Every structure is written in C-alpha cells, then in structure tokens.
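Notebook entry, structure prediction.
Reason for the run: the old model in the group folder had no record of what sequence produced it. Starting over properly, with the input documented here first.
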Amino acid sequence: MSENARRLHVHTFGNPVGVPVLALHGVTGHGARWAPLAEAVPELRWIGVDLRGHGRSPWAPPWNIEQHVADAVAVLDRLEVEDVAVVGHSFGGAVAVHLARAVPDRVERLVLLDPALGLDPDDMLETAEDTRRDETYPDLESARADRADRWKGVDGALVDAEVAAHLAYFEDRWEWRYLRSAALVAWNEMARPAVVPPAGMPTLVVPATRGEFVEQSWLDRCAATLGADLTVRPVEAGHMLFLERTDEVAAHIREFVLGLD
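New structure, fully documented this time:
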C-alpha cells in the first residue's frame, strides 16, 4: 500500500486561518459529524478526521489506540500544524487523552465530550458481541429509522445528514461506512484502564448526564492531576450531546478555546 493510500481522510470546516482544532469522532462514526458543531463555532479551523477503519480512511489494521495516536500525529504533520486544540467524543475522547500524553508539546488543550475510557469489561464484551451481529438494511428508510431510534433527541435533519454522509451500498444491502473489525478492537480499547490527561494540560470535560460513560472516580483522578487546569461542564443530554445540544456544547468550546462567552 502506498503512503498516500494510508493517509487518513480529513474533513475541514470553519476559518482556514483560525485556531486549529483536531476533532476525533467516536467508534462507528466519521469526521463529517463535526459539521454542525463547526458551523456553531466558525471562528475555529476544524480538522475532522475519519479514524482508521472508519469512513473514507484506510481500513487496514492495526486499530489500537497507539495507531490512532500515530495517525493523528501524521495528520498534523501533513497539514503542518504544530500546536492544536483537540476535541474528542466518546472513543475519540480516549484517543485524545492518549494523544496528549504522547505528544503534550503538540496539544495546547483538550475538550473531551462524554469520553469513553476505562469502561466496564463485561459491558464492552456485550457491546462487542452486539457489533458482530448483522447491521445491514434493505433500504434507506429502515437505516434512517434505526439511526433515529438510537439518536433520540437529535434533530431529524441531522439524522438525514448522517444517512447521506455515512451510509453505503455494498452488494445488495445498505450499511454504515465502517469496518466491524475495527469497531470490535475499539470496544476492547475502551475497556483498558482509564488514564488521565498529563499534568499542566488545560482540559474541558463535558459529560452527558444521560450518557453513563464518565465516572466520578475518573473525574476525581483528573482533578487530582490537573487541579485548576480542569473544567467540567455537564450537559443535560444523551451520548450524542454535541448533536443533541449543539449550541450549548459550542458555547463551552468557544469559551474554553477562545476565551469568549
């Protein structure tokens, strides 16, 4: 495989000369999901990647956190971005924390949206087994209905956008554009012991109050390590909080990254 073929697919939004933000989506997702948030904070230069095994990025392994970190650094190098704010949702939040620990000189600050670290191994086993089962659809309507059911509280127009951007026709069925094997590895990675951002790293954690991903014990460990560098702003929403409560999440990001209310 050529080096060019190994490059992650990148979606860009916002101000091309604004403060750069590397945005990392969750498992089974894709970089175009950041478009509504980018529209709400257009001052920033949004760099939304499709993680390896997802979207239009290469699907070849490995798919572990260390590889996702290396891929993210390669994106920054390719775009000649030295310092960046990193926004991560769910599994992307886990990758973001590991990225900050690996190259703290490249990460100026972290925004963690309902991050998924140190999750219960039994829960991850069950979720992984569910992922192994068939998730294809005979038509667009059934795919949309399933996504709308999973994304309760998210505006219907955003569900339509997800279908348009992320659903693909393979042979005689419709399915989401991600590799099931990569998702299985991601669930495994989320069961690893949770780590915290490195000391001195300005970090905003935005837990979804109905998400059940962020444990208070992990927040306590973050507080012990980060002290005044930790900001926690819960949002009354489900796990897809940045799509369900876009304006509220955008306000937190604008204040934290740009210092603007």
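Summary: The mean pLDDT is 95.
The old model has been moved to the deprecated folder.
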